[in-house]
Automatic annotation (TrEMBL):
One of its GO terms (cellular component) is plasma membrane. InterPro entries: MetI-like, MetI-like_sf, Phosphate_PstC, Phosphate_Transport_Permease. Keywords: Cell membrane, Membrane, Phosphate transport, Transmembrane, Transmembrane helix, Transport. This is Phosphate transport system permease protein. It comes from Candidatus Syntropharchaeum caldarium. Residues 73-284 form the ABC transmembrane type-1 domain.
Length: 294
């Protein structure tokens, strides 16, 4: 009886610990949101919403500062979309190889190697981009400067790969063997089994992995700050220099007076970025949960 009572107390304490951690996480998330919203919304008392979504961002002008964020938003979208266009095919192909084709020994080497990519500091990737990748891109495409959205996207795609590969590999590995056995029993080859049986069954998880990767690339700061070119002009090509929202906040926050309109506008940018990443992660979680229910 005593042992059973101690076990019940221990289980309740463990349940309380995890519940408290969950509540604390939600409180921190809500605190960040309300902090950003409290300061950021004050900017709209002086900046008309139509001007805020205009085409020119120049809050430091002496005579007529402008607050249009569309060039910054376009730079963010350019880098995010192009990064995913690079990372998704490479990530899914790597996940298929690790889960379905690699030998058990090679799989045990590749999985931690992929996860180690996530541990590379973004400033190191930025340096590699500055010294090696940007000159290479400039030479290959005959550009005057290799610091642009394309170069930044390649590096950000590398940063998104661990998320896409790890989740996709877990999803593919969780497909029951009966799918493979049934396909092979019907005379399908290994590749036909992967293409026609495994990938359709794992498609929901792969989409969720891609969306989580999107949330990762949208919030990246250091790499885009170092190699995206930091131009406030509206980009018309992937080879144009861009300044995503994250770079703008990092560059300008140290130059503003705390509490002034520029300071509030940067918090408004942060609020928009927060809502974008929150919506992406929420959508991926909902999508993944629905697939698991089915």
């Amino acid at each position: 009886m005593r042992g059973s009572s101690e076990g019940g107390i221990r289980e309740r304490l463990i349940a309380f610990f995890f519940t408290a951690n969950g509540i604390l996480t939600i409180v921190i998330l809500m605190g960040i949101f309300f902090f950003l919203a409290y300061i950021g919304i004050q900017a709209f008392f002086e900046i008309p919403i139509t001007e805020f979504f205009g085409m020119n961002w120049n809050p430091g002008a002496y005579t007529n500062p402008s607050w249009g964020i569309l060039p910054l938003l376009a730079g963010t979208i350019y880098v995010a979309v192009l990064s995913l266009a690079i990372a998704i095919p490479l990530g899914v192909a790597s996940a298929i190889y690790i889960a379905e084709l690699a030998s058990p020994t090679l799989r045990e080497i590749l999985k931690p190697a992929v996860e180690m990519i996530a541990s590379i500091p973004s400033v190191v990737l930025g340096l590699i981009g500055l010294i090696i990748l940007a000159p290479l891109v400039a030479d290959l495409f005959n550009l005057p400067n290799g610091l642009n959205a394309f170069t930044a996207s390649i590096l950000v795609a590398i940063m998104a790969l661990p998320t896409i590969i790890s989740i996709s590999e877990d999803v593919i590995g969780s497909i029951p063997d009966s799918y493979r056995e049934a396909s092979l029993a019907l005379g399908a080859t290994k590749w036909q089994t992967i293409r026609s049986a495994i990938l359709p069954a794992a498609s929901g998880g792969i989409v969720a992995a891609s969306m989580l990767g999107l949330g990762r690339v949208v919030g990246e700061t250091m790499v885009v700050l170092m190699v995206a070119g930091n131009s406030r002009a509206f980009p018309t090509s992937i080879f144009d220099p861009v300044r995503p929202i994250t770079s703008t906040i990092a560059i300008e926050i140290k130059e503003v007076v705390q509490g002034d309109l520029h300071f509030q506008a940067l918090f408004a940018l942060g609020l928009i970025l927060f809502l974008m990443t929150f919506a992406i992660n929420l959508a991926s979680d909902i999508f993944l949960a629905r697939r698991q229910i089915r």
